[in-house]
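Researcher: Here's a chain I'd like modeled. Treat it as a single chain, no partners, no ligands.
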Amino acid sequence: MQNILPIILALIAGLCVAVQTPSNAMLARSTGSLWLAASISFLGGTAVVLTTWLLIDRTPLATVRQAPPWAWIGGLYGAFFVAAVAFAAPRLGLALTLTLTIGAQLTTAVILDHFGLLGLDRSPITLARVAGVSCILLGVLLVRR
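Model: Modeled as a single isolated chain. C-alpha cells:
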C-alpha cells in the first residue's frame, strides 16, 4: 500500500493538470486577462494549501529558514506554467499543449536525475530512459498531426 499511494496521487495530479488548463483558459477568455485568471487560480490554490497547513500540518514557519535560496522560487515556475498553458491551450489545443509540457518535463527530469541536481538523488541516464522519453517525444509529434 505504501508504494501505491504516490502512484495514485501522481495520477490524480495529472488529471488535475488536464482539467486546470482549460478551466484557467476559459477564465482568461471570460475575463479578457490571462494575468487575472492566473491570479484567481493561485488565490484559490493558496487558500486551500494554507487552510490544509493550518488545520492538519502546522509545521512551524521557522523551519523554512533551513531551505536553500533556490527552493524559494518554486512558485514562480508554477505561476509561469499556469499562465503559459492557459495561453497555449486555446491556440494549440489541450492535447498538444499538455504533450509538449509533458515532453519538456520528462526531458528535464531525466537530466536533473542524471546529475542529481536540485537535491535529487542521482539516477543515471540509461538507454531505457532515453527510449522512454523518445517515445513521449514521438507522442508529441503524433498528437500534433
